[in-house]
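ok trying this again, last paste got cut off
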Amino acid sequence: NSSDYIPKLVHLSRQFVVEPFQIVVSGRRIIKEGHCKKHCRRKESERKLILFNDKLLYAKHKGGMLVSPQYFDLLYLKIEDTNLKNSLLVLNNRKSFVLEFADQDTKNQWKKDITDAIQDIIQDSSVDVSQMKYAAAWIPDKFATKCMNCGAPFNAFNRKHHCRGCGKVMCNDCLKYKVVIKNISNDPVKVCENCYKVYKNQ
């Protein structure tokens, strides 16, 4: 009975400084809660991770409250393994990212639970997601000492930038093209030559 989850949803909603969406609604339930590290551009940072039956949410802890929440509809998510230890790649049409867990077993359990929840919501939806285009996850700065396109070394004068199309770290000279990427930005964003050709053809 979904009404059994209402007290849990109310308790969770009160943990946010600003509620990211209306958490307490009929039919919503919390499948899983835990902690992970989110790989950001410059470093990894701790996040609380919450899996609902319709959304995946992560947020920061600050002063005993949850802040800076980001959430994603499960219908538009895809989960993949990565070559990074204990990590999952979370693919979404507007933002993709890497989550790192404490150990392999924890990662595998989160992968199963998120994947199962995604499959459940796809089965109950009339939306066709078979042709979904996912945003590229940005490669963290620490994995690039030189441009991933031309090989120029990075230094104080040759700074690191990200291609919004493929997520690779490149120098400014290799990101001289701009395109509008649907779901990511309404304005033109920097992309490499290869991504520019792909989006131009589309």
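PB: full thing came through this time. The radius of gyration is 19 Å.
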